[in-house]
Specification:
- The protein is mostly helical.
- It has a domain of 108 residues.
- Helices cover 71% and strands 0% of the residues.
- Helix 4 runs parallel beside helix 12.
- The N and C termini lie far apart (68 Å).
């Protein structure tokens, strides 16, 4: 019976992978996802915006480990509840430790944003137009923002309006600090001049100051995060070692034992989630989010090369128009 269930799970996983592979290109050509798809994206990748290649590889590895290890754990322990506990451990531990690690990726991206903004201001001081400066910035783009800047330059070369390209760039970054820089560019998308260059220089200095403050905060939190990691590692180590003892796992094979195991697992997950909420640094709300009350639809990907494109209202920019 267990072997039949294992074969059924592997067959279902193969069919899901086949469907995702066949519909991957079609999904990329559809319109911008709605709120439900955006929440699913945040839940799966851990945040809005373009996920990093490391995060994409991690999710693929976790999915493969879940499909392989969950049935094996069931066959080994004879406890059906392990089919839910193994995926919870595979996806939950990185989710927990993500809050106990310093947010180095965001700090590095903010440093790259400050560097890119300062270089853009220096180029604008020479009298270069904004579009030409944005196109030329990809040659000296910082490594942390190179993919997003390449996409920005590609959209401008595909005859996107500067406003639409900058808004798409802001969505790919999905950061409140980056929205401040891009809001200044959006307000002066029709030209450049020394005023815009000075504003970008001030914004670059502001971003560098934010980076310095974030590094100081992360250094203070390092000791508490280390304590949380060691505590969780010791508890899970005791559970893994005890699972090899048949006398230890025998009571959980019955129906009442699985109910007790489920309650204990739920309480343990609740405590870990509470600990994670204490160590979590929630992101600030963005400025350049499309107004959901607007009747203007999203820009389809197939119409990206048109001269006239959708122009969603931005509550932040409406005050300046």
């Amino acid at each position: 019976m267990l072997l039949y269930a294992l074969c059924g799970l592997l067959l279902a996983g193969g069919l899901v992978a086949l469907a995702v592979g066949l519909n991957g290109n079609r999904a990329a050509e559809r319109a911008e996802p709605g709120p439900l798809a955006g929440r699913a994206h945040v839940l799966w990748y851990g945040g809005p915006g373009t996920p990093s290649p490391q995060m994409v590889r991690r999710r693929r590895v976790q999915l493969a480990l879940t499909l392989v290890c969950a049935p094996l754990a069931w066959l080994f322990s004879r406890i059906p509840l392990t089919l839910g506990l193994v995926p919870l451990a595979v996806f939950g531990l990185p989710w927990l430790f993500a809050a106990t690690r310093s947010d180095t990726r965001r700090i590095v991206r903010l440093e790259a944003l400050a560097e890119w903004t300062q270089r853009l201001a220096d180029v604008l001081l020479l009298g270069v137009g904004l579009n030409q400066a944005l196109l030329g910035s990809r040659k000296t783009a910082p490594a942390a923002l190179a993919p997003e800047i390449e996409e920005l330059a590609a959209r401008l070369q595909a005859r996107w309006r500067a406003e639409d390209a900058l808004r798409a760039f802001a969505d790919s970054l999905a950061d409140a600090t980056a929205d401040k820089v891009l809001a200044a560019l959006l307000l002066r998308a029709g030209g450049s001049g020394p005023g815009l260059a000075r504003a970008l220089s001030d914004l670059a200095e502001s971003v560098r100051e934010e980076v310095r403050q974030r590094r100081a905060i992360e250094a203070d939190r390092a000791k508490h995060r280390t304590t949380i990691r060691w505590l969780v590692t010791i508890i899970l180590g005791v559970i893994v070692v005890g699972s090899f003892n048949d006398r230890y796992t025998a009571p959980y094979s019955s129906y009442q034992g699985q109910v007790v195991l489920g309650i204990l697992a739920a309480l343990f997950v609740a405590v870990l989630a509470w600990m994670r909420s204490l160590a979590l640094n929630p992101p600030l709300p963005r400025l350049l989010e499309p107004d959901r009350r607007s009747r203007v639809g999203a820009l389809p990907a197939s119409d990206a090369s048109d001269d006239v494109q959708a122009d969603p209202e931005l509550p932040f920019l409406k005050e300046y128009q």
